[in-house]
Amino acid sequence: MEDKHRRLEPIPFDRVKVLGGLWKERIDTVRNVTTRACAAKCEETGRVDNFRKASGRMKGEFRGIFFDDADVYKTIEAIGYVLRDEPDDELRAIADKLVDEVCAAQLDDGYLFTFFELGNLKDRWTDMDHHEAFCVGQIVEAGIAYLEATGDRRLYEAGLRAVDQMMRTLKSYPDGWINGHEGIEMALVHLYRYTGEQKYLDDAIWFVEQRGHVKLRLPISHYKTFFTDEYCQNNVPVRELQRVTGHAVRAMYYYSGVADIASITGERALVEALERVWNHLLSSNTYITGGIGQSSFNEGFSSDYSLPNLHAYCETCASVGMAFWNHRMNLIDGEAKYADVVETQIMNGILSGLSLSGDHYFYENPLASTGVAHRREWFNVPCCPTNLVRFVPSIGGYIYAQAEDGVYVNQFIDSRLTTEQGVRLRMETNYPWEGEIRIRVEDCPEGMALSVRKPGWCERWTLSVNGAASDAQPVEGYFRLKVHAGDEIALSLDMPPRRAYADPRVKEDAGRVAVLRGPVVYCAEEIDNPGIPTEYFHADAALPKSAPLTVESRPDLFGGVAAVRAGELTLIPYCMWDNRSAGGMAVWLREV
Question: Are 169 and 218 in contact, with CB atoms under 8 Å apart?
């Protein structure tokens, strides 16, 4: 089946080279620090030993939590992405060792899940809460990434065998099956696109169609009272979706898989269902930082317009999931509003999760702190570190997309694009600290369409082509230009600091104001604003209504960022907080 219904096609990140600015710094940190730190932690915590035990290379029982295999896979995937960008013999050796241990643990029938291999194998594929299919999806993603980077097929072929074993088993169940933790759907669509084999798309559709029809089965789960239909998005069939429910990360992965399928089949009922959920989520369950999942109780959604700041959960993985989903929604119909959400996530909710040093992480991302919230080296459930380590080096895949008649520029990141169709673009920018974006068309088909996103937050701009002012107006959020080889497009986005106010129904933010500049949410941190006791800082930090907002260039701060002076307060980008000494923090400030 051809993807003839999809308006946009993704451009793989290995066709994009990030060359400078904020994201080049983050990619370099992940390459040099985070990949190695995650691999070391997988060894230190026994995750790799579980594979050695399963293969018989080591004696002992399973150690950890049943889904721990996934962190090894995500680390391999991340190393694959880094190696596709630049060779690194040390990282290659680390990953080769991990791949060897993983593949040795696979059973002859293709099954690969160390928790049951080292426990009661008769329990495999009996309990929907045990993440077996989720881990198969992670094997697939890691296998493709590592094959593309190195030519090593071992993990890729292990993933294919694991998929075959899974589908043989699950499709034999007369009562059907759902995955307690989604994710396999995206991986199967990726396999379909990678191999062209229809069966993988059919399998992804099969998983999606099960939801809302299958009874949960949890014979060995410890979470029988907690694990509900709503929690794992099994409360209604996919085409009847109206609102976001349950565990935030699982929901985002589910909607991402559905969007993948809709982008291929063109089924409007699926798109309309996703749009309903999207509207519900963005209107009443999303923080200004892009964070989602208010509650630590279910790691997910609570009630509409309940958005506490000090106790906001906002799991880093949920922001990654939001980027996954909105990127895919943008590909379906080419609407810029989805790329706007991706921008909010990558500039705030996702980057907040990773320290500037690259080896400490936020699991939760509150919008206020009494000085007790800090990034940590690792977690018992380290899904956020291993999601960050694979997301950051893949950021190139979110910058551009392609249509039949040309290229879309969705994110403003200093980079070079080279497509199989002969398009070569060079984008130069120091965004988001500056609003100047320059795009040189080094080569392209004659009269190619170039669609450049006009961010939803931007009210004033100037656009020029080859030095001449252009009067092009945005259509569906994009400036649409006909370009030729040698053209140079300059887009200047006016980025004054601005005040933002919450919906009146959000009681936690009544009488409060937030400050943004461009896509970046700002916060006040105690270290820059002494005088208020730490425990009261989040409640008492105040911004007068009459106080001007001015931009301060701070080359001494975090390697050079734009700070904001707000009355007597110094504000820093939210994604940078907690990289210095401990203290209070607030995004929503008392307006006086």
Answer: no
Q: Is 223 exposed, middle or buried (0-12, 13-18, 19+ CB in 10 A)?
A: exposed
Cα–Cα nearest to 101, from 154, 36, 45, 48: 48
Q: What span, in angstroms and rounded, lies between the C-alpha atoms of 515 and 573?
A: 10
DSSP lists the bridge partners of residue 408 as 401, 451
Residue 498: strand pairing partners? 516
d(CA 303, CA 248): 13
Tokens of 326: 């909105």
Amino acid letter, 296: S
Q: Do residues 11 and 424 make contact, with C-beta atoms less than 8 angstroms apart?
A: no
- Average confidence (pLDDT) over 194-198: 97
Mark 139-155 as b/e (b = at least 16 C-beta within 10 Å).
Answer: bbbbbbbbbbbbebebb
C-alpha 286/C-alpha 88 separation (Å) is 39
Q: How far apart are CA 317 and CA 298, in angstroms?
A: 14
Q: Which residues contact 108 (CB under 8 A, 6 or more apart)?
A: none
Cα→Cα distances 174→91, 166, 170, 177, 233, Å = 45, 15, 9, 9, 21
Which residues does 412 contact at the CB level (< 8 Å), separation at least 6? 427, 429, 431, 432, 437
φ/ψ of residue 376, rounded to 5:
-125, 160
Give tens-digit pLDDT for 451-475.
999 999 999 999 999 999 999 999 9
Q: How far is CA 358 from the centre of its chain?
A: 17
* DSSP category for residue 265: H
CA–CA dist 354, 422 (Å, integer)? 36
Q: H or E segment at 316?
A: helix 316-333
Q: How many CB atoms lie within 10 A of CB 533?
A: 12
Average of pLDDT values for 294-311?
95
- C-alpha–C-alpha distance, residues 165 and 99, integer Å: 20
Residue of 573, 517, 562, 513 whose CA lies nearest to 541: 513
pLDDT tens across 481-500, in order?
A: 999 999 999 999 999 999 99
Confidence of residue 13 (pLDDT cuts 50, 70, 90): confident
Half-sphere exposure of 136 (CA within 13 A, CB side): 25
